[in-house]
Amino acid sequence: MTALDQPRSPTRIPFPTVDEIARHCHQSTEPETVHIEVHLPGPVNPERLRTAFTEALHHHPRILMREAPGPWYRRRYEWELTTTADIDPLAFPPPTQDALKQARTRSLTHTPPLTASPPIRLEAIQLPTGTALILTVNHTALDGPACLRILATAAELYGGHPNTPTAPPTRPPDSPEPPTETPSVWTPPARVAPGTPDPTPGGNGLLLTELPVPHRPKGSPYTVNDQLMVTTALMIVHWNREHGARPRPMRITMPVDDRPRGTDMPIGNGTRLVEVTFAPEELTTGAEPDRMAELLHRTAIRTRALKSLSRPQLGHGATLLTAPVVPVTWRGTLTRGLRRAAAPWTSTTLLSNIGRIPYTLDFGSAAGRAHAVWFSAPARMPRGLTVTTASTAGRLHVALRWSRTLLGSGDGAHLRDLFEHYLHATEEHPA
Length: 431
Fold this sequence. Notes:
alpha+beta
């Protein structure tokens, strides 16, 4: 399994590489939470939802865990599996006018603790029309796709309808063309230019929007993911140009998830990260309508090559850094120092495209089937901005999340408009 080590005992699992690096780099000022928001057309029954969610946790026992205590000189952090939850992970806030806004804020600012099982929190918000389910995940322990699997199981247990995942969409055939040349990874990439931060200090801001899934001509050599990659790059280039930033290579981190989506899906942090790089001149000319097809084609070649690479989730350096040869606290000090030193080479932004939601998320006749699903990934500095997308019911659900030390709510709205503009531009090029 990609992120899970075999347990040393029936109740203990050593932290995998991704979990340990995240644990070392935790910051209370910018919590590492994953926010998942599911909208249902009707109301849910609280006790019925509690029963289904509790049973879903037991269907996937890897989620019932907490960080095990240990001495400072231990060589590994360990997860301790539990048979029941330490705390009630489900809440039903009063249906006030600001209940949804407050729940979103909590999802960005209040991290479920690692010391209590499970490290997630689900809030069911009653809306004027329907229900919003907001799942907050401690990213040190779990990622978004794994927790979506938990929700899919809960929906099946609640509504009684099978949640068998649909087959992934058909991809264009592999191109025999080699990857095009890209700037050196040793060149510091562009940063998102500072905007006008809101007076509220610290933490992340969030903007959710819904757009049509971009059209792609039949037989195109690129995917919707490639269109989103180009859209994100052009959005930041436009933003930086407006704010007087000097052109630099663009580097965008892209999570790749090869796990199955059935009930046997490994639960944990299971994605590996690759980086897609663009030269400044590519994005300058690529915005022109007659050059867009060429930019999309080059992007498709690069992303396909990166996805086919076999490498550790965070690279060989991270694997070496987490080798249990010295006390884990010493490795934590080294990891934080290296992170600060490598900050100028950190990618410009992260684009996490969940893709088409493979589950129906049908909660039965009263609550109904999910018609909107948003994810948002942490936006810590030095990136300061992440873009997360998913598609449901033929619509693209986009989350822009930013560090409040870099951008404000007005900046988020402008970036959303730029994203929509360039996403539409990827559809307008000559076939």
